[in-house]
Amino acid sequence: MILNNATSPVTEFILLGFSSLDQTSRFFLCALLSSTYTLTLAGNFCIMWAILQDPRLHHLPMYVLLGNFSFLEICYITATVPRMLVDLVTPQGDIISFQACFLQFYFFFSMGATECSFLSAMALDRYLAICHPLHYPSLMSQQICLILVASCWVCGFLWFMIPIVLISQLPFCHPNVLDHFVCDPAPLLAVSCALSPQTEHAFYTLSSLIIIGTFLFILASYAMILTAVMRLPQGAGRRKAFSTCTSHLAVVGLFYGSIMVTYVNPAASGSSGKIVTLFYVVVTPLFNPLIYSLRNKEVKEALRKTLLGER
Predict the structure, then answer these.
(1) Separation of alpha carbons 177 and 188, rounded Å
(2) Model-level pTM?
(3) pLDDT beyond 70 at 47
(4) For residue 14, is it left (φ>0), alpha (ψ between -120 and 50) or beta?
(5) What does the pLDDT look like over 8-40, one tens digit per residue?
(6) What are the backbone dihedrals phi and psi of residue 94, each rounded to the nearest 5 degrees, phi first?
(7) Peptide linkage before 9 cis (omega within 30 of 0)
């Protein structure tokens, strides 16, 4: 159903971003985002460097997954934050070409799907290591780990390809203004000249499948891990395992809670959609290296050796 036939082809969009903020608030947010972006890059680069430089770590499945996860976090935050910073210094809105908008859309959602896959793979690795320690070397060999890593990347970058292509084929109306700081499906569909419920349903169905499916898998994995940990005798090992599992679950809860509000039940986010998106785009990539890696004794030792030259 065409809503407006008198439209010229849209070749660019205007991202409103945070246009409602005053100059002082924009400066403060810009400084905060710049600091967060820098810390996230530094933390994840350090983790990757430590794993690559330590011969003991870059062959172990757990650290192969961590290294790939850190690289993913760097790509994930880079796909959005630099343009957000441009938006903050451009009060009238940031102009983005049609091709650049959909390229950002594709990479942003593909890396989000890849992150869900890697969180599941890391939960599986911990489950096998804690619940099946004797069979772990065969169940998670180096070859199986590499296949798992490749599957996460391929699955993530293929998951949303068809619905994104379908959305890009829709006709778009003027004014071509997107009330967001990223090219997100909700504002894009809002400026479409044609109603396409099938495309919209396909996108949100795929979002729900990968978000809810991986979330339930992670919960089940950690539930079995915690059950196994509770059977251990009281001591430092039990406390450490319990602390690690609960901190991992906290990060998983923060990430999945925000994306579920936005993409499983988009109506629930309402006017707070930008804030929710900002949370999982900026905050969780900052916390993930701290929780998953920098609390790890082996990673900290590798960092001391590679960065400080300690023996």
Answers:
(1) 9
(2) 0.86
(3) yes
(4) beta
(5) 677 888 887 777 777 788 888 888 889 999 989
(6) -100, 125
(7) no
Which long-range CB contacts under 8 A does 16-25 form with residues at least 24 apart?
Answer: 16/93, 16/177, 16/178, 16/179, 16/180, 16/181, 17/84, 17/87, 17/88, 17/90, 17/93, 17/94, 17/180, 17/181, 18/87, 18/88, 18/181, 18/274, 19/91, 19/92, 19/93, 23/91
The helix/strand/coil state of 182 is coil
Q: Are 17 and 87 in contact (CB under 8 A)?
A: yes
Which pair of tokens denotes residue 122? Answer: 């890391």
Tokens representing residue 27 in the block: 């400066």
* Closest among 109, 72, 32 to 285, alpha carbons compared: 72
- For residue 231, the SS3 value is coil
Phi/psi for 79 (5° steps) reads -70, -15
What one-letter code names the amino acid at 94? D
Helix%, strand%, coil% for the chain, nearest 5? 75, 5, 20
| Planar angle of CA 70, 76, 77, nearest 5 degrees | 100
Residue of 152, 85, 90, 151 whose CA lies nearest to 118? 152
